[in-house]
Design a protein that fits this description.
single chain; mainly beta; Immunoglobulin-like; four-stranded antiparallel β-sheet
C-alpha cells in the first residue's frame, strides 16, 4: 500500500473480507495497517481468483482481485 494511503487508512475504521472464487474465506472486522494475511490455495488445478474487499464504516469500498494458478 502506498505510504500516503496507509496514513489515511490509519484514521478510519474499516473491515477487510477475503474471497476465493467468490467464496467467503475470512474477515477482519477491525482493519489495520499494515496487515498480513496468509493464504494457502486449495482446490482443483486451474486458474482461480482471490479477491480482497475493504469497506469503511462510512460506506467507502475498495476491491482488488488477482488470478492465481494451481498446478
Amino acid at each position: 500500500m502506498d505510504e500516503k494511503d496507509a496514513l489515511r487508512m490509519e484514521k478510519v475504521k474499516y473491515e477487510i473480507t477475503f474471497f476465493d472464487d467468490l467464496d467467503f474465506i475470512s474477515e477482519e472486522e477491525s482493519g489495520y495497517v499494515p496487515i498480513s494475511w496468509v493464504f494457502v490455495p486449495k482446490g482443483e488445478e486451474g486458474t482461480h481468483m482471490l479477491s480482497v474487499n475493504i469497506a469503511s464504516f462510512k460506506g467507502h469500498v475498495g476491491l482488488k482481485s488477482i488470478a492465481y494458478i494451481i498446478k
